Amino acid sequence: MRGLLLAPILMIAFATASSVALLRDASLRYVHRTPQVVGALDVDLASLRQIVPRGETLGFITDRNDVEAVDERLYGLSYSLAPLIVENTANRRFVIGDFRRKANIPIALTQYRLRVVETLGNGFLFCAPQ
Amino acid sequence: MPSAAVLISLLVPIIIGFAFVRACIPGEKHLCRHDWLRLCLGVGVGFGLCSCAFFVWLLVYGSVHVFYISVELGLAIILGALAVSRATGCRLCRSPMAPKTTLSRWTHPLVIVFVLIFLLACMSFALESRIHPDGQGDAWAIWNLRARFLFRGGEQWRTSFSRILFWSHPDYPLLLPGLVARSWIYTGAETRNVPIGIAALFTFATVGVLTTGLYALGDREKALLAGIVLLGTSSFIKLGAAQYADVPIGFFFLTSILLLCMRDRLPVSGTILAGTSAALAAWTKNEGLLFFVLLLIVMKCTKEPVSRFLSGAFCILALLTMFKLSLAPPDYLTQNTGTALFQDVTDPSRYLTIAIGFIYEAINFGGQHLNPLLPLFAALFLLKRKETRGARSAAIILTGMCAGVFFIYLITPVELSWQIAWSLARLLLQLWPAALFTYAYVVDFPVASPAIIPETIPSSINQ
Q1: Is some CB atom of chain B closer than 8 A to the CB atom of A11?
Q2: Which one of A120, B18, B204, B302 is CB 3.0 to 4.6 Å from B42, fit for a cystine?
Q3: What distance, in Å, lies between the first and last C-alpha atoms of chain A?
């Protein structure tokens, strides 16, 4: 009979330990949290959504080399700019530039034959073909 | 005021769902203890119905409009009236209670532990939601992104299904995006509290369905234990707070299987509700389609009448078909055809990679280095098992789902190891509430001897 009580006791012990561990882990991550990148661009890019007509597809260029980082910026831009679509190409009527280093901007503008229409902040430029 | 609008936006679907569930599983004129089960079922079902209603609105009206709120209020009134007219008595109250078990003396401590772990889970959920208010990964890149397209897009809401957005799986159905977008109509702005609230309700309603469902089947202590294990599965709580669709689809898997196992105690309209729930799983994610087909096959094989099941699913499946045929781009799995497909299916290394993936995820299941499978396996050796038709069907469906996932990995055109690492843990968590229910339904604590507890509860008692 005592063996039969072992089963529920094991389940309760597991669940309690797991819940406490999760809360401790979540508390630590909350205290040391960094600002979330996603959604942070919403304010910077709100004005752009007013200018560009709905349904427009925007191009996207960046000076980042890491594929994962490029994807993250592209997806983050799409999230903030919806319902505008952002595509990883320079061949569009409007192009968003994402630059970490100012020195890379003139090189990219020359390479893709673009001009800056507006500086959006946070390393983003709103560009159009020359 | 915005938080009041958020509350109302979430309350209306719950009222709709509760009324729909009460119409399918009639209750007494007054509320009885089984209305907790109806309420928990109503949370997910109501969310699903409102998402479908919103999609119909978009198709007919062409864009988001505040007048949509009156459609939902009308729906709530109609379904409420139907539920009242069908309140002819609760069949679940008339079903026999299970005899008291050796655990019956432990009811009060179990309730206390359940409440404590529930509170811990709520606190963890709140902290996770504060850390990631837009949700994680897929939540913002797929579900909340699409909700923004639907809400902001005006008459051009269809652009959200553009092939350019292939990385956001535009072929995925619209339960979550539709639900979030329709809630923003109530609030008038894109508040993050809406997706957080929806995620919280789905997560804790799943625990509610598991606990109250097992309780309705007769054993209160077993129900509490199952609820405690689910609340104590940290990866389940984390996934819920991450706003992924895997928790909502898990809710519908659990609900469909629960109703399948309860069908002897329910009126035939309970089968209609099972059909609605299974179809809502398909309206949540593509895996839901596989689940729906498996459920249908199992019902056919066990010679269950499927006409009522299909009638409950018909409208939602019709919407899904319309969505898949007219809006959604082809699924990424369809890219793999011909020779490449044959090579993948006949490549032994892929079988090995997938098998290793399954073993790895089984060992690391649950998160926090505390695997909930361990105490369950231990209990399996200590306790008796009972074979029922419902439990057998549920086990076949869950095994079929695992086999289906295995096959999808086999034919995926995406890099296999990456996809397994990215998705398998979540796919297994989708099945976890239903698997836990099946497990708790099968294992039996020994009946208490008369020396310990002198009487069993008479079947007529309605608590």
Answers
A1: yes
A2: B18
A3: 84
